[in-house]
Design a protein that fits this description.
The complex is a heterotrimer of chains A (about 290), B (about 260) and C (about 270).
Chain A (H helix, E strand, L loop, with lengths): L5 H6 L7 H20 L5 H18 L7 H33 L6 H16 L2 H13 L3 H25 L3 H9 L4 H40 L2 H10 L3 H29 L3 H11 L4 H4 L2
Chain B lengths: L1 E9 L5 E10 L4 E6 L5 H8 L7 E6 L2 E2 L5 H9 L1 E4 L11 H6 L8 H6 L4 H13 L15 H14 L4 E5 L7 H18 L2 E5 L3 H7 L2 E6 L2 E7 L5 H8 L16
Parallel strand pairs in B: 3-8, 3-9, 6-7, 7-8
Antiparallel strand pairs in B: 1-2, 1-4, 4-5, 9-10
Helix pairs in contact in B: 5-6, 6-7
Chain C lengths: L18 H17 L9 H6 L1 H11 L8 H31 L8 H16 L2 H12 L3 H25 L4 H8 L4 H35 L7 H10 L3 H29 L1
Helix pairs in contact in C: 3-11, 4-7, 4-9, 4-10, 5-7, 6-7, 7-9, 8-9, 9-10, 9-11, 10-11
The chains are: A mainly alpha (about 290), B alpha/beta (about 260), C mainly alpha (about 270).
Chain lengths: ~290, ~260, ~270
């Protein structure tokens, strides 16, 4: 290492300061610390936690009640059906809403109104929708669950659809308009082919999420595997609950794999795009060429 | 001294990327490798630091075999070999200095890297490397904000920060315009002469090869077909290496036909 | 004189891919099966449309929030926020190494990759509410069960998001780090992590938002937060209060999204 002259050192730039960034980091850390310190939780419970979890684990899985599959499997199927119908409802209804919510297709005020409406729907947890609206309509059971899942999905799917439409290449649309085609035809031939693969990928991803929602809704009365889980845990039939959990895990993983495979076949990297879109509310980076 | 002893590389698909290369590169030499795309230039250069392993034969550096080096030994060997790339391979989101400091990783304990605190000595070495390529004023600039030529100089600084004995350059100027290409090649030449670092450069452009290469070797189909000085490498030699007539794409600055 | 152009053979019409019509047919069949009375859930659109008005009875109550109920929601809301923060912090901290282990770009070996991915698949397969039920059973009701449930949920989501991002990074810096003699950990830290940091921050904030939404649900089984209150009010048929809670959640999520946009900009 050669010796450096004082002049050399003086000519070097100084590290820049990042005041805003540091403040943001400190603020975040402060909030996190507040949460940890002020929560009202009995820490002594944490000490016997491992033991209690292990004991529960043993009663659930070592061994599970294999014969209970007669009950668990049909229930799981019902949950899958619930999720499927729900996703279908959400997909069908969100498609036109997505078009209306896209700023480049429909006019400003209309698209804004639609977006607010979609956000409002998203705010309603499925559980509340189910209990408040759909159980009165359809009674307890998977139909109410499917409806709740469907209507809730409209919120997210509508938003993603609108954003996908907003990011399309306007060339084909202009070309279609220039031929004098009526508006609906422009949508069908100019817009739809570009966005359909991505939208279908969103639908499939939503189906995966809705499967979990279906299991959850079962706990509040929508039947299916959720009801089985709830009953077995409430009545402390842990070996049966263990089996139900195994059924849920296997079925969910299977469906995730199949759905993921189909999605990847529909578009390259669709996993990432769907997730990116879900998280950032925008179609993935490849779309915008960033 | 770098020695190739009947080194061959055959990729899993059956592609013979290198065939029986036997070669000696003395310390401090500036050697240029020319050849068509796919002739094996990239493969040859990557067998030196083990990014590609020879499937038969051996490559040794000062007697130490690359082929059998693993883990810590391999990392030690690589630590002494700097490499620059056609696409620069910088971390775009972070500063120039952080990129150059990657050259000090081989001498930095993992825990320091994880928390991002390099030793002061290492930062000093990085700064000096930046000074040597004349770009220290950009030390805290985000790498993506630099021009192509500047990014490549950062790449060179990163390699220099390793305090290497060997410098590998895989098509370092293929993405740059002619004036910038000359600047970068001159930098490499200067480093080779001033610091005595063995420099091995893959070049696509024959005019650059003639100007900057002390010794030129030509590869064709994975085989060594020429090994000589720049003075002896005329158009006929290049035609041999390329197996075809030369085109304007083969030189950086085509001289227009009169 | 123009030479006669040789007759150009029209290319044969490409075989229409069967994938799309097959997929569509499959989807229709599944729908019919799923909706049928005998094999499925018995979805009868006509009956639903008939009873549609019944749904609006309660809904109108919900859409008229009872603001007087607000003071009783403050403490549970704060608890929800605390739970969400704690679970997101711990969950995302664990998801960071887990995500790197689960990506073929940064996994140290094929075995650890397969193992990590399998474990994460299992973790992700269970809905948050199920974790909540299990932890409530093991620990009795209260926010601790909720936090633990959310942590598992967060690890599942966060690690998946991170591994997908890592799968897509620019491999150039990785090659450079390897060529410079770095260890595996150093390569990940200097070559990959800077590339994924902005996404990681965004995911973490997203996960935090998910926790707030999830709190309504896990409250049903007694795992703490505003969900308990929501559940209770639904049980008492106080739907005006339910409406207030939903409104509060809506506003809260909206505010969080605003803050997270700001934070994302400043932190990266």
């Amino acid at each position: 290492m050669t010796a450096t002259t004082a002049a050399q050192v003086a000519a070097r730039p100084t590290p820049p300061s990042h005041v805003k960034r540091d403040i943001a980091i400190l603020a975040t850390l402060a909030i996190i610390a507040w949460a940890f310190l002020t929560i009202d939780v009995r820490l002594d419970r944490l000490i016997d936690l491992p033991e209690r979890l292990w004991s529960l684990f043993q009663r659930m899985f070592l061994p599970p009640d294999w014969s209970y599959i007669e009950v668990a499997l049909p229930a799981m199927v019902a949950s899958i059906q619930m999720a499927w119908i729900g996703t279908l409802i959400g997909a069908v209804l969100s498609l036109p809403l997505g078009f209306f919510g896209a700023k480049n297709i429909s006019s400003g005020p209309v698209s804004n109104a639609v977006r607010v409406f979609l956000n409002a729907i998203r705010a309603f947890p499925e559980v509340v929708l189910a209990v408040v609206v759909f159980v009165p309509i359809a009674g307890l059971g998977p139909v109410a669950g499917a409806l709740a899942i469907g209507i809730h999905s409209i919120g997210t799917l509508g938003k993603l659809t609108a954003e996908a439409i907003e990011s399309i290449d306007s060339g084909p649309v202009e070309a279609a308009r220039a031929t004098g085609a009526p508006t609906l035809a422009v949508q069908r031939w100019g817009v739809l082919p570009q966005v359909l693969p991505e939208i279908v990928a969103f639908w499939l991803y939503r189906f995966e999420i809705n499967l979990r929602a279906a299991a959850v809704l079962g706990i509040v009365g929508a039947g299916g595997i959720g009801a089985v889980l709830s009953n077995t845990l409430s009545y402390r039939r842990f070996d049966k609950a263990g089996l139900a959990i195994i059924v849920v895990v296997i079925a969910t993983i299977l469906i995730d794999q199949i759905s993921g495979y189909v999605r990847r076949r529909i578009i390259e990297g669709s996993d990432r795009k769907a997730i990116q879109a879900e998280v950032f509310g925008e179609p993935g980076p490849d779309r915008a060429g960033r | 001294m770098i020695r190739f002893e009947k080194a061959s590389v055959t990729y899993p698909g059956g592609v013979h990327a290198l065939r029986d290369i036997t070669l000696q590169i003395p310390d401090g030499q500036m050697m240029v490798i020319v050849g068509l795309s796919g002739a094996g230039k990239s493969t040859l250069i990557r067998t030196i630091n083990g990014l590609v392993q020879p499937t038969s034969g051996d490559v040794t550096i000062d007697g130490r075999s690359i082929r059998h080096a693993r883990g810590r030994e391999l990392r030690e060997i690589r630590g002494r070999i700097g490499m620059i790339f056609q696409t620069f391979n910088l971390v775009k989101r972070t500063t120039v200095l952080n990129n150059v400091l990657m050259g000090r990783l081989h001498a930095t304990p993992s825990w320091r890297s994880v928390i991002g605190r390099y030793r002061a000595d290492d930062v000093e070495i990085a700064m000096q490397a930046l000074e040597r390529v004349g770009i220290v004023d950009k030390a805290y600039v985000r790498a993506s904000n630099l021009s192509g030529g500047q990014q490549q100089r950062v790449g060179i600084a990163r390699a220099l920060a390793q305090q290497p004995k060997i410098l590998l350059a895989d098509e370092p100027v293929a993405s740059l315009d002619p004036p910038t290409s000359h600047v970068v090649m001159r930098d490499l030449q200067r480093i080779n002469r001033e610091l005595g670092i063995t420099t091995i450069v893959n070049l696509h452009f024959l005019d650059l090869a003639k100007v900057y290469g002390e010794r030129i070797i030509g590869l064709r189909g994975g085989e060594l077909v020429y090994d000589g000085t720049a003075a002896h490498a005329d158009e006929n030699v290049f035609r041999d290496i390329y197996g075809r007539s030369l085109t304007a794409d083969d030189v950086l600055e085509p001289v227009p036909a009169v | 004189m123009t030479a006669a152009t040789p007759a150009v053979q029209r290319p044969p019409r490409p075989k229409r891919s069967l994938a799309v019509p097959a997929g569509l047919l499959g989807a229709i069949l599944i729908t019919l099966w799923a909706a049928s009375e005998q094999f499925g859930i018995g979805f009868d659109i006509a009956a639903i449309l008939e009873d549609l008005s019944k749904g609006s009875l309660i809904l109108t109550e919900v859409l008229q929030p009872n603001f007087a109920f607000f003071p009783r929601t403050i403490e549970p809301m704060i608890e929800t926020i605390q739970m969400a923060i704690i679970a997101a912090t711990i969950g995302c901290a664990i998801a960071l190494p887990a995500g790197f282990l689960a990506s073929r770009v940064t996994a140290p070996g094929r075995i650890s990759l397969a193992v990590t991915r399998s474990i994460l698949n299992v973790i992700r397969a269970l809905p948050d509410l199920l974790y909540a039920m299990v932890f409530v059973t093991a620990l009795s009701i209260g926010p601790l069960a909720g936090i633990l449930a959310l942590i598992f949920f967060n690890i599942g989501v966060g690690a998946k998001l991170l591994s997908e991002t890592v799968d897509a990074v620019d491999r150039g810096p990785i090659e450079a780090a390897d060529a410079a003699g770095s260890t595996h950990v150093q390569m990940v830290r200097t070559g990959v992590f800077p590339q994924v940091l902005p996404n990681y921050v965004a995911f973490s904030l997203y996960v935090f938002e998910l926790n707030i939404r999830a709190s309504t649900v896990i409250g049903i089984v007694g795992a703490g937060g505003i969900g308990n209150t929501l559940n209770a009010q639904m049980g008492f048929f106080n739907f005006n209060n339910v409406g207030l809670i939903i409104l509060e959640l809506f506003i809260l999520v909206f505010v969080i999204e605003l803050i997270s946009i700001q934070l994302r900009r400043r932190l990266t």
